[in-house]
Amino acid sequence: MTHEKTLTPVQKYKQSKKGREAARKYYRANKEKLRALGNAWYADNKEKVKQQYEENKSSRIAKVKARREARLVLGLCSNCNVPQTSYSNCYCEKHYFEQRSCSVLGSNKHAQVLKTMFYSNPKCPYTHELLILGSNAVLDHKLPKSRYAHLKHDISNVHWVSEVGNRAKGKMNHVEFTLYLKEWQERINGL
Ligand SMILES: [Zn+2]
User: Fold this and answer.
1) I want to staple 98 with a disulfide (CB 3.0 to 4.6 A). Which of 12, 111, 128, 147 is the partner?
2) Are 108 and 95 in contact (CB under 8 A)?
């Protein structure tokens, strides 16, 4: 550790276990006071903080990007240091479902529900195919968001289907498409 040589005794103490404990103790004892001081400082320096934030933006983004890329090369999740799951070349299991939740439901808060939903019945309700994550499994809006915009972020309006089923359903809603499939099945049976 070459940087240790350049630390002053005070800096060394601050970084030591004892120093950190003392800081935590002091913070706990003076929480309200320190918060008020912090808020007052921020009110006085708001513009400066904003300016610095903007100035450092591109270098921050570049750092995050470099860290992500380094993780990906090592076979780790791009968001954390957990290995990628077998069905994603980008994410660990947790972040895979969070990413699905984000892109389909606008936030990552439904990740756990989506995961439970998948594992409780990994079968397409339309084509009856076995669903495989990272392959044919996609999330479908039962009532398509193109026609029911107010339900596009509603977790009860999504389910796991196969890519083929999803494409064939198009802009039909769940009931329409189920009827459509039933009609075709009857026609085929009548042949
Ligand atoms: Zn992760």
Assistant:
1) 111
2) no
Residue after which a domain boundary falls, among 55, 71, 87: 71
Ligand 1 centre to CA of 153 (Å) is: 23
Ligand 1 centroid – CA 88 distance (Å)? 11
Residue 111 Cα to ligand 1 middle (Å): 12
Is 88 domain-assigned? no
Domain assignment present for 159: yes
Task: Indicate the number of domains in the chain.
Answer: 2
Over 60: is that where the pLDDT of 126 sits?
yes
Per-residue pLDDT reduced to its tens digit, 136-146 = 999 999 999 99
Indicate whether 125 and 65 sit together in one domain. Answer: no
Domain that includes residue 130, residue range: 121-190
Mean pLDDT confidence for 4-12: 83
Cβ burial, residue 62 (10 Å; 0-12/13-18/19+) = exposed
Whole-number Å distance, alpha carbon 137 to ligand 1 midpoint, is: 20
Q: Please, which residues bridge with residue 123 across strands?
A: 130
Is it the case that residue 125 has pLDDT exceeding 80? yes
Output the CA 95–ligand 1 centroid distance in Å.
5
Residue 142 is predicted with a pLDDT of: 96
pLDDT of residue 96: 97
Neighbours of ion ligand 1 (CB under 5 A): 77, 79-80, 82, 92, 95
The dihedral region occupied by 15, where left means phi > 0, alpha psi between -120 and 50, and beta the remainder, is: alpha
